[in-house]
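A student in our group prepared the protein record below, which I am reviewing. What it holds is a sequence and that sequence's fold in token form. My question to you is simply how this chain folds and whether the tokens agree. Do not assume that whoever made the record got everything right. I have pasted the whole thing underneath without changing anything:
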Amino acid sequence: MGPLRLWLTSPPNSEGWLSARIRAGSQLEFRVSLYKSNILGFLSRCQAMYEDIPEPVTAHLGLEPEFDLTLTSDKFGNIRAALRVSNSAPTEMHQYWFDVDQSYLPRLIAGLRSALDEVSSTD
């Protein structure tokens, strides 16, 4: 989606955490931990965003301080993405804002579902 790529790189552990790799922009790459139930909630909100275009919807993914992604739609199907990533050094933080439309959501939804299925099948 826009300048953001996310790969899930490990199955969830016994507490539901899994590892992910994020590429932001053209050169920055980070490893983060995400909670599986947060990813599922994010997927649900993205689905609502795609199906209910006239209603503004916010989808939020992030729990740890090093990663935060928020998608906010408007009644016209425009989506504003706000991404914040930081490396292990607390003084290094990168923020991105970019706009997409709802036509990007099916690919995002399918990609996250596929990635979750893939890491879950390795349990």
Q: What stands out?
A: The chain has one domain: 4-120. The mean pLDDT is 81. The first strand starts at residue 4 and ends at 8. The two ends are 28 Å apart (CA to CA).
